[in-house]
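Hey, quick one: can you model this chain's 3D structure?
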Amino acid sequence: MKIPRGSYDNRALKPAWLAVGANADGTPHRPIIRCACGKLAGTRSHHVHADGRVTASFYHPLEGWDKYDAPGCGFHEFLELEGYDGPEFSSES
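Sure thing. Here's the predicted structure for all 93 residues.
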C-alpha cells in the first residue's frame, strides 16, 4: 500500500508517513507512520529501504503496543512511502 507524505498540521491524512528531522550533525531520523486510526508509530522494528519500501509489514495490534498503550486498530499492510528520499534504515529489532 502506497501512503503519502503527511504533515503534523494535517491529522486528517491517514495513513501517511512523516519526516522527523535530523540530529544536530544533519543525520536524518527515521520516518514515522500515522496509522489508519491516526495514532503515530515508529519504524524502529522495520527496514526502511531507500526507495520507500517498509519491511516487514506494518501492524497496529488490537491489544496495543504494550501494557501502557491503548488498543490499536488492527491496520496491517506492506507499506511504501510515496516521495521518500531519505536514507535506508535497517531494522533494530
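One thing worth noting: The CA atoms of residues 45 and 71 lie 19 Å apart.
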